[in-house]
Each structure stands twice: as C-alpha cells, then as structure tokens.
Amino acid sequence: MMNLAVFASGTGSNFDAIIQAIEEGKLDAQVSLLVCDRVGASVIEKAQRHSVDTVVFTPKVYENKAAYERALLEDCRTRNIDYIILAGYMRLIGPTLLEPYQNRILNIHPSLLPAFPGKDAIGQAFEKKVKITGVTVHFVDDGMDTGPIIDQEAVRIEDTDTEEDVKRKIQAVEHRLYPKVIQSLLVKEESL
C-alpha cells in the first residue's frame, strides 16, 4: 500500500476528501503524514481526528528554504512516503523535495490551467468574466502551477453565480477528482 504525505496550509477540505476516499475503499493508500506550515490551521485538527501523524513547521525559523525542505524530506523518508499530495499548500516546492520526489508530487488547482495560475484563481476567473473554469490536477515542478497536467474537469459559471457558489462547485469537483486521479496513478505504478 502506498504511503501518502499531504501538505496543507488551511482548512483541509481536500485532506478530508482523500481520507474519506480511503475509508470508502476508493483509494488504496494511507495518509501517513500531514505537513502543515501554519500553526492553528484547521487541517491539523482533522488529521488528529484521523490519527494521522502531523508535523507543523514554521519556515521562518529555518536558515533558508533548502534547510526547511531538508527537514520535510527527512520526515517523509522516515515514514517511507511514496507520494506528496499538495492540498492547499501555499508554498512553492524547491529542488530539495522536487529531485527525490520527481513526478511524485501532485497539486490540485481551482482553474483549468494554464488559465489563472497562482492565488485567487476563482477571483481571477470572475474578474475576466469567463463562463467556464474548472479544476486541474498536475505534477509539481519548480514553477507556480506549471507542471504537467494529469487531469482536468470543467465547471460552468452561471450568470447568477457568486464567487462563493463557484467555490462550492469547484470544491465538489476537487473532492471527487483528486482521490480518483491519485488512485489511477497508484494503480498505474503498481502495474509496472
């Protein structure tokens, strides 16, 4: 069974979706580690409820990004982590993690990349008045939301939708799509 580390910075709705997919037998993996870079983030409590080992790092206490990522890498190696799953983790990943986990770090983004990368993708979509946005799952590289796309799903923005409406629609897609994509990658790897 594959060991996953989920990196998150906020509420952890995608963390919950991954745990639920595992409990329902839709995802054949286990979350062995939660990494959070924000003390007091809601996702920490969610991980504790599910007895998931949790480490909370404050990046500012490290000499530099490489030192911070070396500490993360050590925690991942100690737990034999196979894949790193970014779920609202608001930091760019550097070479210290990218090299040992090449094509094993996934991210989910609330737009149809390459449109609206970075922060506030839903707000960007509203500002541009697009009618279609969506969700993208991609491998992580050294850019911001620039890694190879694994899967995408469109979400329609209706004239009557508020940003909150679109956020709910996107999260519903994320919570279904992310575990499905992770499972498909694990099945593909196990068949090799």
TrEMBL record:
One Gene Ontology MF term: phosphoribosylglycinamide formyltransferase activity
Gene3D superfamilies: Formyl transferase, N-terminal domain (3.40.50.170)
Domain Formyl transferase N-terminal, first and last residues per copy: 2-182
Ligand binding (N(1)-(5-phospho-beta-D-ribosyl)glycinamide): G12, S13, N14
Pfam families on file: Formyl_trans_N
Broad EC category: transferase
Highest taxon of source: Bacteria
Record's keyword terms, sorted: Purine biosynthesis, Transferase
An annotated GO cellular component: cytosol
Catalysed reaction, written as an equation: N(1)-(5-phospho-beta-D-ribosyl)glycinamide + (6R)-10-formyltetrahydrofolate = N(2)-formyl-N(1)-(5-phospho-beta-D-ribosyl)glycinamide + (6S)-5,6,7,8-tetrahydrofolate + H(+)
Keyword Transferase set for record: yes
EC number: 2.1.2.2
Catalytic residues (UniProt): H109
Pathway: Purine metabolism; IMP biosynthesis via de novo pathway; N(2)-formyl-N(1)-(5-phospho-D-ribosyl)glycinamide from N(1)-(5-phospho-D-ribosyl)glycinamide (10-formyl THF route): step 1/1
InterPro entries noted in UniProt: Formyl_transf_N (IPR002376), Formyl_transf_N_sf (IPR036477), GART (IPR004607), GART_AS (IPR001555)
Positions annotated to bind (6R)-10-formyltetrahydrofolate: K65, M90, R91, L92, I93, N107
Site (Raises pKa of active site His) residue list: D145
GO BP terms in the entry: 'de novo' IMP biosynthetic process
Keyword Transferase: yes
Function in brief: Catalyzes the transfer of a formyl group from 10-formyltetrahydrofolate to 5-phospho-ribosyl-glycinamide (GAR), producing 5-phospho-ribosyl-N-formylglycinamide (FGAR) and tetrahydrofolate.
NCBIfam families linked to this entry: PurN
Annotated family: Belongs to the GART family.
Protein known as: Phosphoribosylglycinamide formyltransferase
Species of the source: Halobacillus mangrovi
Lineage of producing organism: Bacteria, Bacillati, Bacillota, Bacilli, Bacillales
